[in-house]
Write a structure and sequence with these properties.
This protein is mainly beta. The chain is built from two helices and nine strands; from the N terminus they run H-E-E-E-E-E-E-H-E-E-E. Strands 2, 4, 5, 6, 8 and 9 form a six-stranded mixed sheet that branches. Strand 8 and strand 9 form a beta hairpin. The protein is elongated. The termini are far apart. The relative contact order is 0.27.
Amino acid sequence: MFDPVALAEQARAMMRLPEPDIGTAPTPDKPRFVNIPAWMWVAEADWGPVSATASVSAGSVTVVASPERVVWDTGDGHEVVCTGPGTVFSRAVFREEGSPDCGHTYTVLPPGGAGAAVDLTAVWEWGVSWSASDGQGGDLEQLTTASTVAVPVSEIHSVVTQVR
């Protein structure tokens, strides 16, 4: 007997989704500064559907996972939700658009003080659907992949003096 839902679960279990390839500006080895926007993105080349097929003699089922959003835990108690991969930083985009479409502005120093690192975590959420060779189909439980990178947070102090 052909059980397409069981076969769909088997195909889903075989899927190998990419973990988020985290990009940031400034780069992870450089500090983000309090009150200055930081850019975040995942590799756009990975932002596309991934499929797997399971077959038995009576038919087959194809499962497709499609990226839906990335939920960023910024390490300072905030969460940023981006429904696309984000925009890779470039001076041209910055001059034209200013603040990033997927970014975060740290407003306080981390508990360790200036230069202390916080964990920036990207959780990639994937919607999953299936279709069988006999025309049946449906949705399965969402899948997630995640990556974390440590980023330092600091601040800039300035002194205003009178110019004569």
